Amino acid sequence: MTTWTALTTLAHPAPAHALAGMMEQVLDPAPSGIGCFEIEDGSGRWEVGGYFERKPDEAALALLAVLHDAAPFTVSRLDDRDWVAQVRRELHPIEAGRFTVHGAHDAHRVGPHRIGLSIEAAMAFGTGHHATTQACLRLIDLLARGGVAGPGWRPRRVADIGTGTGVLAMAAARRWHVRVLAGDLDPVAAETARVNARHNRVGLTMQAFVAAGLAHPRLRREAPYDLILANILAAPLRRLAPAMRAHLAPGGYAVLSGLLSVQAPAVEAVYRGHGLRRVRRLVIGTWTSLMLQRPR
What we know:
It contains nine helices and 14 strands. Helix content is 33%, strand content 30%.
């Protein structure tokens, strides 16, 4: 699959985060992924980049660069390539809470008393290496250890929105041995999640299918949920707030991720307006993940 990248640099973190947020909100086509990080060359400069499935609007990018005092964007086309094979070679096991996310070739590296999640690189988001995925796994583990709701808490029903490879859904299924419904807009992601579920021996408790947010008959039918996981992007998270509240059981938790730290306060404010309160916030690098609760 041919993809496009658009990269720029800025002198300071605040405008870099602001630019990353605006790219998600105003560009058409919208980026399928956004990165914002400090360049590790001692210069103190920041890089902001977007990945696109279609050629981005270069005029809009130029305007955004001027408005945020950024260098002109460099737009590049990445031709078809076996990215899956390349990523598979470069992946290494990641530990987050009690979970170890690894490729099949590293199964022997999962330590005792840990929960191994075997994820092969695929054309879907969620190998466990991104800070947002790691944060979600740590928050799931925190819940399971009684660090939020107290010892003995366990969900009866779990939903994973935008499941990607299914790593978060599998983590919940393995940790609590409960039924998990996992939806994703992308049919490739849904199929990848199903394959991974079978490979990790949770194919009977975790069901993955194509779904847009929570607007799917199966997700509506099995509500309310004690735990909803959503590692997506700020804009769809804001739109999901009313449905999230409606589908959460009283006392239930929502884990929201995929947020640049500059975006998190606005997303939290939207959910607070729908009656959900923050019980945990986890920051890794430039990314923030939130755990919210619906009052009983």
